[in-house]
Specification:
This protein has helices at residues 84-94, 99-119, 123-128, 130-147, 166-353, 356-379, 396-418, 422-429; strands spanning 6-9, 14-20, 28-31, 34-37, 42-48, 52-62, 68-79, 150-162. The chain contains 8 helices and 8 strands, in the order βββββββααααβαααα. A hairpin with a 5-residue loop joins strand 6 (52-62) and strand 7 (68-79). By secondary structure, the protein is an alpha+beta fold.
């Protein structure tokens, strides 16, 4: 089935390269789409468009000064799927290769350029101006990788190392220089601070003396003005005290007069209150003692009358209940006697109607039951202790004999109760 037509699909991170018949002599490139392919006459290849991260480690490369250093750089590269020319170059260079193969090729290219640029620069230039080093590697590597259809997205110098301590020496020299500059700057700062402090102290003393003079002048003027003010104040204070005493006397007299008026009004009010209290107590006595006493008297009288009536009614009811109870008991006794007499009469008639044969049959039926009832207690006994005087049988025969004696006494008892000799009747039947 060489001519079966199939549909090939690719994602946005890859490109299809379709070559063979019906392509006009050039392959067709499709990014993130689909195409119809005839398997026997057309070929389909896939090229990845993913961004590839490369860690470029170049070990012990001698710089322009002859110092061996090691550099680690990081680069981001990818096949440019938006440019047809670069996509054609990538298809030509990497057709049928895996992503790892493409990474190896890009890594080898970048490492070579990184090594070459390290040999053309000094350690100080690489160490102090990393941006320039990164730019040179990026520019040189981009020119070669573009021809392969790959674009360099970014390149960054990650780390610089050396095995001879050159970088550490640079750091120590710089550290010493910085410390020296710091000590010089500190000494100059102290000098300037001392000069400034002396100038400030001089200015402070001048200002303090001028301020003390001004304070003395102000204090003198204050004392003079205070003396004048005190004289005026004391004069006004004396006049005010005399006026206050006179006014206080007037006010005190007026207060006394008002107090007398208040006391008169208070006495009148007390008299009215006492009169009202007397009237209130009389009403209270009338409402709390007299009226309740009369009500209590009336209540007790009514209670006594009711109690008397209750006792009379209870006595009458008790007498009547006793009379009715006696009548009921007499009637019940009479009826019970009549019923018993009637029952006895009926029993006598029944006994008269029975014949002797029937009596014998009945006794024969009852005798086994009597024997069972007599021997029942013995059957429930776990242990029997028998005492014998030595005369007659002993043991189980003695026990059986006693049960038979009980059974033999039954005919005599029946004859005494009914007048029927069961023994004679049985012998007559035999």
């Amino acid at each position: 089935m060489c001519f079966d037509i199939g549909v090939v699909v690719c994602g946005p991170n890859e490109a299809l390269v379709i070559s063979g018949m019906f392509q006009g002599g050039k392959p067709t490139f499709i990014t993130g789409g689909r195409a119809i392919v005839c398997p026997c006459i057309q070929t389909v290849q896939r090229i990845t468009l993913n961004t590839m991260t490369l860690s470029i480690f170049t070990e012990r490369v001698y710089t322009s000064q002859g110092v061996p250093i090691s550099v680690i750089g990081t680069a981001q590269v990818k096949i440019n799927g938006s440019n047809r020319e670069m996509l054609e170059a990538a298809a030509e260079q990497f057709g049928g290769k895996s992503e790892e193969d493409i990474k190896d090729i890009c890594l080898a290219t970048l490492e070579g350029h990184q090594r070459a640029i390290m040999g053309n620069m000094s350690v100080e230039e690489i160490y102090r101006d990393r941006q320039t080093f990164s730019t040179k590697v990026f520019d040189v590597a981009s020119g070669d990788l573009v021809n392969m259809g790959i674009m360099v997205i970014s390149y960054t110098l990650k780390d610089i190392r050396d095995d001879v301590g050159y970088l550490a020496s640079l750091g120590q020299a710089r550290t010493a220089q910085v410390k020296r500059d710091a000590l010089i700057g500190e000494a100059e700062a102290r000098r300037d601070a001392s000069i400034a402090e002396a100038n400030a102290e001089e200015e402070r003393m001048k200002a303090k003396l001028l301020n003390d003079i001004d304070i003395a002048k102000s204090k003198r003027d204050f004392e003079l003005n205070k003396a004048n003010y005190d004289t005026q104040v004391n004069t006004a204070k004396a006049e005010a005290e005399l006026a206050y005493s006179l006014q206080a006397a007037k006010v005190q007299a007026k207060i006394k007069e008002e107090e007398m008026q208040v006391k008169v009004v208070e006495r009148e009010q007390n008299i009215r209150i006492q009169e009202q209290e007397i009237m209130r107590k009389e009403k209270e006595l009338d409402s709390k003692i007299r009226k309740p006493a009369e009500a209590e008297k009336f209540r007790l009288e009514k209670i006594a009358e009711a109690e008397k009536q209750r006792i009379v009614l209870e006595a009458e009811a008790l007498a009547e209940s006793k009379a009715l109870k006696g009548e009921a008991e007499a009637y019940a006794i009479e009826e019970l006697a009549k019923a018993e007499a009637e029952q006895m009469a009926k029993k006598a008639d029944a006994w008269k109607e029975y014949k002797e044969a029937a009596m014998v049959d009945m006794m024969l039926k009852v005798l086994p039951q009597v024997a069972a009832e007599v021997s029942a207690p013995i059957s429930q006994t776990k242990k029997i202790t028998m005492v014998n005087s030595g005369d007659g049988p002993i043991g189980a025969s003695r026990l059986t004999g006693e049960i038979l004696e009980v059974m033999n006494s039954l005919p005599d008892a029946v004859e005494k109760m009914t007048g029927v000799n069961i023994t004679q009747k049985l012998n007559a039947r035999a």
